[in-house]
Inverse folding.
DNA sequence: CGACGTCCATGCCCTCAGGTTATTGATGCG
DNA sequence: CGCATCAATAACCTGAGGGCATGGACGTCG
């Protein structure tokens, strides 16, 4: 008896939401399509998985049994997939490097260049991650190494080497009164609306909102963005201000956005991370070495 | 990224056979269909899994990586499937009982009747297994309990309670000279062709060929059968003789087939088996109790 | 009490995945 | 050289799986 992992994902979504309509939205399919799939799954197993009512879809006892076991299937497949891809990229002499926007900025290019010289046969695949994934794909096994802002959630499970740290500056709409000053005080920013990363990024988001350093004053969110482009646009349009590493002033300059140093703000660290499973891999070690050389 | 488990089964088959044509036969699909599926899988992963040549399909390094991981996905799904079905049948008050043909014979009905009386709300689903599966589906989680001939392969991993034992008789074509005797000597059977179970049944097959008791004299196979009907037909048609439990003489009588006791042959045991996971289940315990009561 | 909102199910349509048979190419072998 | 062996391709058919629009059951609220 065969299933598609898609069917299992559909099932878990409905099980979690308890509601076809919402699950369908979450899965980006239409509700009738989902209805059909769930019925098909039930028919496939010969087991009723849900009891339908106007209040939604409730798991039956066998449904709960499947809901408990489905994740193990999905995660087994995830492991198989990322494992296979990892081996494939290795045997094609490709190093997959993830980075979050504004992580290493201009250092990135120097690192890649140094690595290319050290390992002439190898190609580097650079993949920019959205801010929603602070591990830049490393946690999912999508990349072999990543250039990241420190600290980041899940850091404990990975090997990390800090590279350098930079002052946190502020990016302001050029028309903003504070843009006229050479240096801004953190205290002056406390009541400004901020352009922030999506809420699911947790500690990462908080760090760039200076949540720890605003003495309990709640932050006002002016806009939420996932990528540098939206971010710059939001600031230029006056939706709010945002903290950014000093190098962003050079790397992400744009008319309408002004960067200024901030007094009284701790710096931000940049590091390189890789999976403990690859810790002995000579190519990874070379890459890390390049990072350390070029960053100091 | 989603896959169908079918695709993974196809992949493993090709990986094992190293040959599309043979793998296609084994999977009961056409060779072009399999070609397409394998290419689709490669495309899906963005990874070349095989190198094609006149000698067949050889795994690449990433292919080997997937071949190592695919079984874990398939077995996770197998567990999820049989686990869910088990819970479903329990919550529908159905006890799934497997049996191999001629295991308990007439005792079976008495057992079921006793169980129905003890657990009036419950229904028993009887499932006859082919001789190719001596655990009658118990090993695969397809049934909750099974009535079996002992010993059987995989017995160590299950809970087993022996019920009774029976003499092994011989089933002969009625026209066979030995059918004229009241009792047959094992020695007289040694050079006869036998009707046997399929080779993959291993020890089971050997036991019913009396391999251990023919003093190294090789057995001659006259026919191979999987089900009682073929078996009786093969014997009646004179393709060979076969050992059978005494009760088969009553339970599987047919014109053209004569049963006779055999001197000098050890008896055959019958038992009930269930999964250790269900050992504390009161319903299973009741069923086992019924078996013990009715068999003694 | 009737209008509306919320959910799931149904009907109809379209596209493409996945299967079939027949055939073509490539390549080693007697 | 002709044959056997494998994989790939072509042409075709069926049905799975998606979308939209709508129906039906049932609370809820003005």
């Amino acid at each position: 008896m065969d299933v598609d992992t898609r069917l299992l994902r559909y099932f878990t979504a409905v099980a979690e939401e308890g509601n076809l309509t919402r699950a369908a939205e979450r899965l980006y399919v239409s509700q009738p399509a989902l209805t059909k799939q769930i019925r098909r799954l039930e028919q496939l197993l010969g087991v009723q998985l849900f009891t339908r009512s106007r209040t939604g879809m409730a798991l039956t006892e066998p449904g709960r049994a499947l809901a408990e076991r489905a994740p193990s299937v999905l995660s087994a497949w995830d492991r198989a997939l990322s494992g296979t891809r990892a081996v494939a990229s290795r045997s094609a002499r490709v190093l997959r490097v993830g980075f979050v926007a504004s992580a290493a900025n201009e250092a990135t290019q120097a690192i890649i260049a140094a690595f290319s010289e050290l390992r002439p046969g190898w190609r580097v695949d650079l993949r920019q991650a959205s801010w929603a994934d602070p591990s830049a794909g490393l946690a999912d096994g999508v990349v072999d190494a990543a250039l990241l802002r420190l600290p980041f959630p899940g850091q404990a499970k990975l090997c990390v080497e800090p590279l350098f740290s930079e002052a946190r500056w502020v990016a302001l709409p050029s028309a903003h009164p504070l843009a006229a000053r050479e240096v801004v005080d953190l205290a002056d920013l406390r009541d400004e609306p901020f352009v922030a990363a999506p809420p699911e990024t947790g500690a990462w988001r908080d760090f760039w909102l200076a949540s720890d350093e605003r003495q309990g004053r709640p932050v006002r969110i002016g806009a939420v963005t996932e990528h540098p482009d939206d971010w710059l646009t939001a600031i230029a349009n006056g939706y709010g201000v945002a903290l950014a590493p000093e190098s962003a002033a050079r790397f992400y300059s744009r008319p309408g956005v002004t960067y200024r140093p901030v007094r009284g703000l701790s710096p931000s660290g940049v590091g390189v991370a890789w999976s403990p499973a690859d810790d002995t891999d000579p190519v990874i070690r070379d890459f890390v070495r390049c990072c350390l050389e070029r960053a100091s």
